[in-house]
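Quick question, first post here. What does this chain look like in 3D?
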Amino acid sequence: MAETERVRTREREPAAVRTYDRIFKYLEDLQDRAFTGKIVIKGDERPWEQSRHSHSKYYLCREADTNSALRDWTVFIQDIRTHSGKHRHQGGLIIYVLEGEGYTEVDDEKFEWEAGDLLLLPIKPQGIVHRHYNKRIGENCKWMAFIYRPYGDEIGLHLEQKENSPDFK
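> Answer (accepted):
Ran it through. Tokens below.
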């Protein structure tokens, strides 16, 4: 029986990916998403969710990716049955009232709104404590929020839940 000599070969170590190459990859991925991502997000394909803060339906959100053409926005509808939870963050939120009538307490100041109104929550370094109320309990009261996330990223957005929604179990 002849002896055979074995030579063990190793696979090459993967080449380190350079930062410059990662930048190109990131930009290519963004461009691909912009060209191939969803343009229409169907409302009936998005679930309603009850959280500590509210009963909401998310259309765009980084944390619940919808494979849309945009990634830097959070857009959601909030259905206010009685009132939302109470929380604090730096602001930077645009709210368009879809239906109903209510008010929002912002740092203990009351702001009334109704369908067709636009509510702006300002950016404040210490944040704003706020809660939303339905003035006509039993009737629909819904609004849609728009948040441009890079602003929050840059100001070090902090979210603190102060009180839960009464609908949260």
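The mean pLDDT is 90.
The chain has two helices and eleven strands.
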